[in-house]
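Propose amino acids for all 424 sites.
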């Protein structure tokens, strides 16, 4: 019997991770050794020299090594470990290796913020940092103070510098949008809209994008630079401000947009009556239209596995269309309903099976611009525009060739940092 495989969800960008805070670090005890006579001093001195060479030096030297450099500012291993302890509170020790580079980037970013804010004439005093550290009962080491300073600087930049870059009024569009699974569906809905059906009603019923469905397709008046962030897409913005007001626009394809919908094509190869398991091959497709196309090609003699490698958004531990031997509960409910149905024939590919509990990428935007003109920017959109401007500014700091940003963290340093973290 083939090795049983675990079915995973289709690949998609995952959601951003959030790091928790460290609890206060227990301080090490200091030992004071008192000695009496000069003979004992000499003897003990020789012993301690060996201990110093064999234990103390190897422990202390790495703590002084430079791990990160940002222009003329350097950060040593001791600083880096303090940052790990502060940022990764509650994270299991076995997961720490996955966060080591994240903390490096955080240190680099915080220092770039400090340096660039200083160029803009924006600073945070030691007194402000002290007050924040005390009020939040934070550990009072340099790594924590630098994180706190960066947070206060970001707040000042947001409320001052970036807020001043956003105008009071600007050109805006009244936008209506929905996200649909296929081009054929989008064209069908477009024809219904042109025939007089209501955009909001259809969007609330059909849109596969949560935000536009919640708003019944009506996104309101929006300035340029907002739409892609609201809808988690990278393609719609350029179309919204280039098409004429009043038209229902032809469908716009979005290859990366994730939706909670997919279509199975499943073939049961074997069954084991004793274990209740089934040997299955399957593929997961982005739309019913795509699934029907695959069925047509299979009927013409094309290979299931080859087509799955090209089109399927499903992946297993070992990859490929062959999922091995599965038991009920290893996949979704609709998957099980087909595979473990006694009437399902072996070696027969299923019709497209709709599954709303699995994610796939790709679909078509359909939108309309009822109106446009100069309008005052709302508080909500101003906040979004400030956040977008700040993000672009932060990215530009790393891209600026005049900024020297270096990580010296190698495998030996990583191991040392992890060991120190585990001891705390």
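Proposal:
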């Amino acid at each position: 019997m083939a090795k049983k495989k675990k079915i995973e969800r289709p690949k998609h960008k995952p959601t951003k991770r959030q790091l928790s805070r460290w609890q206060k670090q227990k301080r090490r005890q200091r030992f004071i050794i008192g000695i009496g006579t000069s003979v004992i001093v000499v003897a003990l001195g020789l012993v301690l020299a060996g201990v110093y060479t064999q234990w103390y030096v190897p422990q202390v030297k790495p703590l002084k090594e430079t791990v990160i450099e940002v222009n003329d500012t350097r950060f040593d291993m001791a600083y880096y470990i303090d940052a790990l302890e502060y940022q990764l509170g509650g994270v299991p020790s076995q997961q720490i290796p996955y966060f080591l580079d994240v903390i490096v980037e955080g240190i680099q970013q915080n220092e770039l913020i400090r340096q660039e804010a200083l160029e803009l004439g924006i600073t945070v005093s030691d007194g402000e940092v002290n007050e924040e550290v005390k009020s939040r009962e934070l550990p009072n080491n340099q790594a924590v103070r630098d994180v706190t300073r960066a947070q206060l600087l970001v707040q000042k930049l947001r409320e001052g510098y970036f807020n001043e870059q956003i105008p009071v009024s600007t050109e805006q569009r009244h936008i209506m949008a929905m996200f649909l699974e296929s081009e054929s569906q989008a064209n069908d809905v477009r024809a219904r809209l042109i025939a007089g059906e209501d955009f909001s009603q259809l969007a609330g019923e059909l849109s596969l994008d949560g935000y536009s469905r919640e708003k019944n397709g009506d996104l309101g008046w929006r300035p340029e630079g907002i739409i892609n962030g609201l809808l988690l897409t990278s393609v719609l913005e350029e179309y919204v401000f280039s098409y004429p007001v009043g038209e229902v626009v032809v469908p716009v394809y979005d290859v990366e947009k994730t939706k909670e919908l997919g279509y199975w094509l499943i073939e049961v190869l074997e069954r084991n009556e004793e274990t209740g398991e089934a040997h299955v091959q399957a593929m997961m497709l982005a739309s019913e239209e795509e699934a029907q196309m695959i069925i047509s090609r299979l009927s013409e003699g094309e290979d299931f596995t080859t087509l799955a490698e090209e089109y399927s958004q499903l992946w297993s531990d070992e990859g490929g269309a062959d999922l091995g031997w599965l038991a009920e509960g290893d996949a979704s409910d609709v998957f099980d309903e087909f595979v473990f149905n006694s009437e399902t024939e072996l070696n027969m590919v299923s019709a497209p099976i709709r599954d709303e509990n699995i994610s796939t990428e790709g679909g078509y935007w359909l939108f309309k611009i009822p109106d446009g003109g100069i309008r005052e920017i709302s508080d909500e959109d101003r906040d979004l525009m400030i956040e977008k401007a700040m993000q672009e500014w932060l990215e530009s700091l790393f891209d600026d060739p005049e900024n020297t940003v270096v990580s010296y963290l190698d495998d030996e340093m990583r191991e040392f940092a992890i060991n120190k973290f585990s001891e705390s």
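Confidence is low (pLDDT under 50) at residues 1-58. The first helix runs from residue 38 to 64.
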